[in-house]
Fold this protein.
Amino acid sequence: MKNIFVGNLSYNVSENAVRALFEEYGTVDRVSIATDRDTGQQKGFAFVEMSVDAEGERAIESLSGREMNGRALTVNEARPKADRGSGGGGYRGNSGGGGGRNNRY
């Protein structure tokens, strides 16, 4: 399975339009357009899953830099989501605690 990141999308692109673009290169299992959880507005990027790696590679090579709705797409293999650990994440500021390097020494 190839998970593909698609960036620089216009904010009004449809899931069907992204699917149609990638289906030129093979079977698309899923398209997920990222949206803001508070406003529901699109964030300008999506993830496309293709079950055949070779088809996904061909799509990445062919579509990277291609224009869609007047915008040059950024298309590459998606990286795994970074492990943010437990505790809800978010910015902690300078509240002490921690691990890693400590400037006391």
